[in-house]
Design a protein that fits this description.
alpha+beta, Multidrug efflux transporter AcrB transmembrane fold, four-stranded antiparallel β-sheet, two-stranded antiparallel ribbon, 6 strands, 59% helix, disordered N terminus
Length: 483
Amino acid sequence: MNEQLNNVDKPQRKRFADRQFKAAARFIVRYRRGLALLLLIACVGGLYFARNINLDNSLELWFLEDDPTLAAYREFKAKNGNDEIILAMIDCRRDGMFSPAMLSAVYKASKAIEDDTDNFRRVLSVGLSPHIGLQNDELIIEDLMSGPVETEADAALIRERFMDDPFKRMILQDASSTWAIIIAEPVATPDMDTRRPLIIESVRKKLAGFEYRLAGMGVMYDELNRLSILDGGVFNAVAYAVIAILIFGLYRSWAFLFMALGAMLFSGMSFLGFYGLFDQNFNMVTIVLPTLMMILSVSDVAYVYNNYCFNSDRIRKNREEGLVHVFNEVLSPCLFTSLTNTCGFFALTASSLSVLRTFGWFAGFASMAEYVVSMIVSVYILGRVELKEEIQIKRPMEPQINWIVKQVPVYYRQILVFFALAAVLGVYGITQLNVDTYSMGFLHEKNPIRVDSDKVEAVYGNYLPLEVRLMTGKRGGILSVDF
């Protein structure tokens, strides 16, 4: 009697929202072609908004929103356009800084930069700087140089006047007078991120023929933007290629390969469209979001394909009902995984840092969007596969994994001790972390811009300007004697 009762199949326990997931599975299977077409239209159409995406690695990314320094910085930019200067340090070791040839060359280069009024507001150098002096007991103000230098006597006079001015000695040369300094201030423009590369290229063209080093915040931002594009493209391409090679190499399944590639492609396209729709810019942090979305989509596709293989016999008998069964099994756990990922990323939105908040919001969106994209791509591709025989399930590294699992009960004490030690080391490592948001540190030590910056700091000193605004409190206050 007991044996008979034990052999009776117990009714299967219903899962949460089982009816809804089953209806959703039937819906996506029945309308898989239409859903795939809508996905294609949405992704391709969304690329129109991807045009709005630019690169922005500016200083503001690393400030807290309520930081008074950031408020002052934004106020300064609102009034003055930008706080960037481009510093060119010219090597004068061969002929000397005050030789007629070098003075003439520096003057011509400085004048060419100054004449480019579309890009530059003012230029300061030994070739373009004022001279204030006395002549017959009269105060005179004139240009230190009015043109190219022809004779040694003229060069000696310029050197004498230059050395008499402590400001020029400190700002427009290094301590040994072997490097001449040109300081160029770009024009104030709201589209600085777009024009910055053209402005820097304009300086480089006018310095052609010199041995020089170029530095400045704008130069650093431009290099970070360039590398963000380059590294982002390389990172996405490498991730795409590696995932494709591993999937086909381990599973030898064209269906699984096309499911993964399709999910990654459409996930990336949908994210770019959504990101551009909100006029967002990529930076060193958010540039990884398309790749993150691609990687997340592969985990869902793998789970779908694994369930498909287990139910291949059911699908061969009735493809439509078999696919409904497969997606009824996978929709719920995959949604749970996506929701937990989304909640984790949304936690970042509590940060005061703008860059982390943006990352959290859009990474959360990516987690949910890849779930939808992965299901649509998977059901469409699997719906086109004709199964003629039962699929042989391949589990790469199954013997090794099984061996590890069998060792856990045997050596569980040693394993617990190992992880406890690892946790202690992890806590110690956390105490050794330092916060460093100096943007130049993001560049490799051998990066040309980093090399130039380090050279300028070694020879000339710290070159980033410190702007100090003195407020008079009344109109025309700077003209008052007391001020």
